[in-house]
Amino acid sequence: MRLLRSIITLVVIAITIFFFLDKNNVIPREAIDHITLVLDEKKHDVPTKKIPEKIRTDQKLAGDLFHWIGRETDELIEKYGEPERKDRSAYDYEWWVYSNAETKYMQFGVIDNEIKTIFATGTELEIEPFVIGDTYESIDKVLSFSDEVTYNKGLSSYTFQLNDEDVNRRPLAKVTDDLFIQSYFDTFTNRLSSIRILSGDILLQHRPYALQYRGNLPESPDFSEKEWHTIESGMEKQIFDISNVIRQSNEKSLLSWDDTVHEVAYLHSKDMYENNYFSHYGLNGEGLKERLADKDVYYFAAGENIAAQYVDAPAAVEGWLNSEGHREALLSSKYTHLGVGVFRFYYTQNFLTKP
């Protein structure tokens, strides 16, 4: 009997240790990118609310885009045809990209022919009862934004903790036990800019918010240099496409891709990564003017946005949209061309006005 009591006691202690002592704080924060003239971001105060104990079942997310998670790529091809391209991501999935370059842009994250996540922006999305451009308040009424969102998988438990800026700019909503929606807002207009739909596993891979958890976290994939080059090239194209769709949504002209300026931007992102700094000026003191001159680029005007440690290309563009100086460059009417360079998770946009 004593032996049995001892065994039971040990089991209880082990369970207690797992559930109460194995709590870790992970706070992956995106580097706040900056521009030569740094201006304060505009903030909107949003009341903090807790997620209800039971997931709401009366949400009327009728839009077709909300119902693709878990479906097969054969259905996707039947609906939209073959993708414009397939971009490898920095995670376990591959992006299937669909875009008309102006009013609709969609990325479907695919693993083993199954759709696991979606990012989309543009004015012609099937996201009823929402549309891009809806107010924060109207979407909050349906999704009930909160500063804490939980995800449970087996015995593991994860709580995503959103600060005020997160709740304002990119709130997270739990729709079902394994379906989440990130709503990206333009905080200067307080309106929906883009949307991301994702499963719990993908959300854990991204870890875009502070996280408290007990259990295990997925390991980051280990890519070769060749694989990273493919990933980076995909992100560059995504940033270019998304930037143009956002410009179109804001009634701005489309930008043209410039290969030489892309190279300038890429080399700056690579230099920042390899030399562990984050600035518009290299360690040699040279800025965009000197970098463009080195490549014999002729222009009337130029501007630059940089970012670091955003989870992917869509998140980086949304970050620029919500920073006053970067937004000015992203939506400027004077620019005609854009070159994008990505190295690992360092992102550079170079804008030009050319003859």
TrEMBL record:
Residue ranges of every copy of the CAP-associated domain listed in the record: 69-209
Recorded superkingdom: Bacteria
Transmembrane segments: 6-21
InterPro entries xrefs: CAP_assoc, CAP_dom, CAP_sf
One Pfam family of this chain: CAP
SCP domain span: 244-346
Alphabetical keyword list: Membrane, Transmembrane, Transmembrane helix
Protein name, per record: CAP domain-containing protein
Source organism per UniProt: Ornithinibacillus salinisoli
